[in-house]
Amino acid sequence: MSNLHCQELPCSAHVKTTMIYVYLLNKGGARCEAAGPVRPFIFPLTESDSRCYSTCAAMFEAAATAMTIIKLSEDNRISLPLEVTEALGLKPGDAVELTASENGFLLARHTPASPAPLRESVSRKNLETPMQFIKGVGPKLAENLAKKGVSVVEDALFLLPHRYEDRRTLAKIGRLRPGANEVFFAEVIAADAASTRGGKRFFEVTVGDGSGTVTLKWFHFNPAFMKKIWKPGRKGIFTGEVVQYGFQREVHHPEVEWLPEGEDLAAVMAGDPLSFGRILPVYPLTEGLSQKTLRKVMKEAVDRFVADVENHLPLEVIGRHDLMPLDKALQAAHFPANDADLQTLNNGATAAHRTLAFDEFFFLELGLALKKNGIALEEGIDFQVTHKYTKELLKLLPFSLTNAQRRVLSEIKNDMMAPHPMHRLVQGDVGCGKTLVALMAALVAVENDYQVAIMAPTEILAEQHFLNIHHWCDALGVKVALLTSSLKGKAKKAALEEIATGNAQVVIGTHAVIQDKVEFRRLGLGIIDEQHRFGVLQRGILKKKGQNPDILVMTATPIPRTLAMTVFGDLSLSVIDELPPGRTPVETRIAFESRRSQVYGVIREEVKKGRQAYVIYPLVEESEKSDLKAAAQMAEQLQSDVFPDLRVGLLHGRMRPDEKEAVMAAFKARETDILVATTVIEVGIDVPNATVMVIEHAERFGLSQLHQLRGRVGRGSDKSRCILLTTGRLSEDGEKRLRVMESTSDGFRIAEADLEIRGPGDFLGTRQAGLPDFRVANILRDGRILEEARMEAFSFVEKDRGLVAPENAGLRRELARRWGGRLELAGIA
Ligand code: ADP
Ligand code: MG
User: Start and end of every Helicase C-terminal domain (predicted)?
Assistant: First the structure.
């Protein structure tokens, strides 16, 4: 038994916590969460094992977790039961203390006492039954399942079929429908390897059932093995998609279940009611397991344990949205009734599927609602808008703010004036003028004698911000400091000093800004640019550099609404949906390698008109195997062979910061005509005179990256062009991406297309973006359900702030259990 000093927990002081959960992770970490507004967190357990949150998150994903509920005692201490400390390898006599560190929380010291009672319900325990205890699951199978993330019964219950197969009746071969997934009984008539006219080998089997014949084909096979299996006369049940070639119907790579020799179909069907005469679930992730085995295991797990799944969705919500109790939904999703509609099942649109998605979204949104509410309750700085600098800046600007900028700015100002911390996300397409909005917000803070930190993801972007901003700030008499990791020695010391004394009113930098050594005198506002590039930890650390400073997050990644709700669900959202006037859309074209000389012609033409050009390469150095042309090499070639009379510059990520700056400065000053660059220019570079961008190997870039890159041109009032050069050997997705770029410059449409092409997991990089992995919900498919669940969840928190009413105790407990450390890790803290 050990005592953890609760003061060490990052808990909000205004609400009392009653319960803390500790999860042990099998790699030596533990995860805590609380049934209250104490933030869930993860901590590594030993000094040597101290890792950052993200590593712990990965550990959590991989770990089989044991859960223990620990009560918080009167004197604000929490107790770890003996079994927990044993699992931690702590000896009685050790005292345990939680210490917050940059890497998480460390556990040290430990004192003995008696174990606290466990309050786990029997049902929960049942759901945590290891899979070995399921009938038919031996150690080998258990291991195999565990590899697929199915360690305990609960995992199995929530591993839903990814499709369903109609075996209510078997199809007749004569009536197989091309395009349909059919199941039919047949006898092997002939089998042999063959070749296409092009010389490609395949294995061909003809099967028939009296009503007709159909050809089965394999294109990857082992001939000897296939010949042994596919003996004429053998009978089996075949499943696969029927395709029509001319007059011939074929099924490629079908699944087969052989009829045991000498047995008759009717007897087999009658003897295996799990596989015949019904709609069958087909499970994902079955490599190395047969569907038949998995089906049996699932049936056993569902039959024995589904009743232990407690329904937590409030009945009124279930009623309002036509849902089912959770256990019934699971039952129906695994083993649908025989009169279910196959298509609805396969679309994941049955009441059962909707229920499961709703349930998952509801608890996510409930957590987000609570967080949002919790932040709203925290005490923050109530800035006054004195207009001292802001008015002055508006006078200095050679243009006026767009309506969208004005609207967003007033939303920000309202937040800043409120006595609670601002947590706001400003989303706006590239070039919409976010930097200016950020600067205006910064000036409001400065007017109140507070400091501002502006954090950018890369040195070059930080420098760019610095150059832009300090130009205006100098004119206003506001002192700006640049702090990047390349700042060394005396210069660095001086900068730190300026920040600590408060002399530096606006501090711009990379992650260097949140390092330990950096101390602010009075940080009032933290601005994070291009959020998606940051780990999630930074937002929290930045917050701790001041006393609940306001936080403004800016992103150019146009996140579709459904995703934004889950990724940034507790941030207030402002959208700058208007570009400054006078911009002409960038004309975008795909050009194949064969037209390279014409592309060069376009560059030459523009430069002749006094304009400048970018040529973008995907890599810095030519990798041995690939045919990518390296930026450095190409810059040289462009200079010497193609444009000997023009000035070609080179910018890449491996250059020293001062070199980069010199190159950028030269380009900005028109001392170079063509800038060959890698994607380091992706964010924030602002040279309105550049009117052409040629992107080499455009097919290698992601859509949002292409959009960001393209945003570097079209910044002036002249017509700009973007040419996507490609070798012509495009994959289907690659072609889709480039066509999207050609057809629109609307960041939201591009993002949506991207989401469609890549799927949500890939969209921002799940872990980085903090997008939760859903067990059953599909954020693309279930967007509507998400919105409904969000409305319900938020209205619960609206009615019962803090979710403290006794009738909501169950909800609250379930919420704490489900949230785990994840959403905190997701940067939603
Ligand atoms: P973002 O960061 O949103 O991509 P920037 O803040 O870099 O966009 O702004 C792009 C360019 O537009 C900059 O040159 C900036 O000075 C200019 N700009 C910003 N707001 C306006 C405005 N209201 N009218 C005209 N130009 C503007
Ligand atoms: Mg920007």
Answer: 595-761
> In angstroms, rounded to a whole number, what is the distance separating the alpha carbons of residues 309 and 817?
14
Kindly report, residue by residue over 299-349, the tens digit of the pLDDT. Answer: 999 999 999 898 889 888 999 999 999 999 999 999 999 999 998 999 899
Same domain, yes or no: 512 and 622: no
Maximum CA extent, the chain: 95
Q: Are 811 and 796 in contact (CB under 8 A)?
A: yes
414 CA from centroid of ligand 1 (Å): 23
CATH number at residue 258: 2.40.50.140
Instruction: Using the 3D structure, point to which of 109, 126, 156 is the last residue of a domain.
Output: 109
372-426 pLDDT tens trace: 777 777 788 999 989 899 999 999 999 999 999 999 999 999 999 998 889 898 9
- Whether residues 528 and 651 share a domain: the answer is no
Looking at the CA of residue 402, tell me the nearest atom of ligand 1. 23
Q: Is 295 exposed, middle or buried (0-12, 13-18, 19+ CB in 10 A)?
A: buried
Q: Ligand 1 pocket check: which of 397, 436, 554, 578 to mutate, most ligand atoms within 8 Å of Cβ?
A: 436
CA atoms within 13 Å, Cβ hemisphere of 713: 29
Strand, helix or coil for residue 703: helix
Residues 323 and 366 in one domain: yes
Under a CB-based contact definition with an 8 Å cutoff, are residues 613 and 694 in contact?
yes
- Give the best-scoring range by mean pLDDT among 288-297, 371-380, 435-444: 435-444
Q: Is the CB of 430 under 6 A from ligand 1?
A: yes
Ranges 463-467, 501-505, 575-579, most confident = 501-505
> Ligand 1, atom 17: nearest CA belongs to which residue?
433
430 CA distance to ligand 2 middle (Å) = 6
The residue contributing the CA closest to ligand 1 atom 16 is: 433
Ligand 1 mean position, distance from CA 566 (Å): 29
Main-chain phi, psi angles of 319, to 5 degrees: -65, -45
Indicate if ligand 1 lies below 6 Å from the C-beta of 556: yes
Structure confidence at residue 762 as a pLDDT band (50, 70, 90): low
Give me the number of domains the chain comprises. 5
The residue whose C-alpha atom lies closest to atom 24 belonging to ligand 1 is: 580
Q: Do 242 and 360 sit in the same domain of this protein?
A: no
In the prediction, which pLDDT does 393 show?
A: 95
Task: Among 530, 686, 687, say which to mutate for ligand 1: greatest number of ligand atoms within 8 Å of CB.
Answer: 686
Domain assignment present for residue 542? The answer is: yes
Q: How far apart are CA 87 and CA 561, in angstroms?
A: 43
Buried b (16+ CB within 10 A) or exposed e, 228-246: eebeeebbbbbbbebeeee
> What amino acid is encoded at 393 in this protein?
L
Q: What does residue 651 show for φ and ψ, rounded to 5 degrees?
A: -135, 120
**Has residue 141 been placed in a domain?**
no
Q: Do 372 and 497 belong together in one domain?
A: no
Containing structural domain, residue 210: 169-277
Question: Last residue of a domain, which of 576, 596, 618?
Answer: 576
Same domain for 564 and 595, yes or no, is no
400 with 504, same domain? Answer: yes
**Residue 651 · residue 672 · CB < 8 Å:** no
Q: Percent of the chain, pLDDT > 70?
A: 77
For ligand 1, atom 18: residue with the closest CA: 433
Res 760: pLDDT: 58
Judged by average pLDDT, the poorest of 563-567, 781-785, 812-816 is: 563-567
